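Memo to structure team: turn this sequence into structure tokens by end of day. - J.P.
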Amino acid sequence: MPDIEEPDVFAEPWHAQIFAITMRLAQAGHFTWTEWSQHFGAVQSEAAATGAPDDGSGYYDAWLAALESLLIGRGIADAGALAALKSAWTDAYLETPHGEPVHLKTGALRP
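Reply from structure team:
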């Protein structure tokens, strides 16, 4: 019998990280897992209705969008702060040589 390679549960490190963050926020009582599941399902449905591919490629993009909107909707996070953080990470990623760890610059989020 040939060896069958198991697929990665998380294709990218950030997939595991966003999953862990969501789990920790639920465990801390910021929302129940049922609330999360309902909200995530609604975001996935909206993505499908607007033409997102149905091949699973956008699963964690939808996960991130759902987490951000849930946190903003509950007043746990600020939309502007999240946008600034995303921008800072994008800049840091684009400026980092391939294979090197990505680090935010000191003061990257300060006005």
